[in-house]
Amino acid sequence: MLDRSIAPNFHTPEFTPFLTPHISEPVPGLKLYSFNSGYQEVFKIEAILPFGSSSIGNPIIATLCLEMLREGSKSMSAAEINNKLDYYGAFLNFKSGIDNSFITLYGKSTFLDKLIPLFAEIIFLPAFNEDALNKLKLRVLQELSINQKKTNYWSPRLLKKCVFGPSHAYSK
After folding, report:
1. What pTM value is reported for the model?
2. Which domains does the chain have, with CATH numbers?
3. Do residues 105 and 44 make contact, with C-beta atoms less than 8 angstroms apart?
4. Cα separation of 119 and 26, whole Å?
5. What is the pLDDT of residues 121-135, one digit of tens each?
């Protein structure tokens, strides 16, 4: 039985310092932050782009641009990109935020040399097909119509409107 009249033993917790990133600039204007934490079986590469829903006149444009990156590149169709990602066991994630947009690639470290050129091609050589854009617009409008009926769509928007005001970019 536990004796609550005696205080438990106390010890100072161990502090593990955070890893410090190595910062390099391979080309002017492009900063590369990397962490050396030893060999890992998996990796994560994240491109942080300085555009989001608040930096563009129409908040949906950032999301549409990111989603269009899924539709193919100059030399590969969307199906070919997806097949390559599947073959190497990799996963791409696109997220548009208020101030920044994020493109994240997850994969196995053994295939890093195969996936980096694919990641670069998706970002730097996209093929913005007009038919794909029209289909995407239609899909986004349908999703918006469905989401506007849900409270988890409206609550953050109304809160931001109250905090920042109706004309602030963060409220849109």
Report:
1. 0.76
2. 41-134 (3.30.830.10)
3. yes
4. 16
5. 999 999 888 888 899
